[in-house]
């Protein structure tokens, strides 16, 4: 499989590995990470780009009642089990000591931000995700940093990655898959209304939150885009790359429609539609759009997927039509999903200004 990096390799997903203790050594700890402190500080200038951005972002930030936003430190949290790791850092389940509220804490060692490009990418991820507030998008509640680390306070999704479930169950039944597509459409409609494209939709970046609500996560490749400002960066996961990205012809939010079709196919079939043994064959299949379906897939699902996985971006079914498609109407339990939305909206912490 192929991973979500600028340089495509053979590891689709970064596996969970032991997390070094230096990620959560407090400033007052008696332990010292001599190896870290003795490393050359060549990447500090790149990390400074990020911390300067965080400082500038937080200084004028106030809550709606006019009181200053709380300044967090690592000592405000009890560190729990590791949840996983990504391109920039490790993620822990933590509990805020005062409120006892559980969140996910992503810890990034500054020395790992090795290039200005990575620094700007992380700044973009924080800038975009911190201003998004939708029940189907993983919240970024806040951020803080110390001399060695940058911390992101993220919404905790107890159901974990959809990808992990698919590894176990192989496929998602169509009734549940349709519900996930319905929710993902709602998330993408919200993003696109703000002229933001995700660019890396895949099961690894879909989490399951409380009440079974889908959460779109990992905004590392997200970007602002519109018709007058098309993007040209080659990024994402090879199995999900759209033809216009491969061709370098420029793309907009319609690239997420292609990914939505690939995601739907992979859920109910168990693998992406253009999966092959090597990168060259995958690229050839994408460009020639050699799409086929197993006999076990319903006709309505085939029709919807075929309307999304189209070489010409203008021919792809828009999101407002996807949620009204017969497959969604027939298979998804929309009433139950909408009821769960109301439960989330009533959540005190969801509506807080942490």
Automatic annotation (TrEMBL):
Q: Which reaction does it catalyse?
A: L-seryl-[protein] + ATP = O-phospho-L-seryl-[protein] + ADP + H(+); L-threonyl-[protein] + ATP = O-phospho-L-threonyl-[protein] + ADP + H(+)
Where are the compositionally biased (Polar residues) regions?
A: 1-28, 36-47
Top-level taxon of the source organism: Eukaryota
Q: Where is ATP bound in this sequence?
A: 87, 106, 110, 155-157, 204-205, 218
The record's section on PROSITE patterns has: PROTEIN_KINASE_ATP, PROTEIN_KINASE_DOM, PROTEIN_KINASE_ST
Ranges where the Protein kinase domain occurs: 77-328
Q: Gene3D superfamilies of this UniProt entry?
A: Transferase(Phosphotransferase) domain 1 (1.10.510.10)
Enzyme class, first EC level, given as a word: transferase
Q: Does the keyword Lipoprotein apply?
A: no
User: Coiled-coil intervals in this record?
Assistant: none
Q: Which family does it belong to?
A: Belongs to the protein kinase superfamily. Ser/Thr protein kinase family. Aurora subfamily.
Q: What is this protein called?
A: Aurora kinase
Q: Which organism is it from?
A: Rotaria sordida
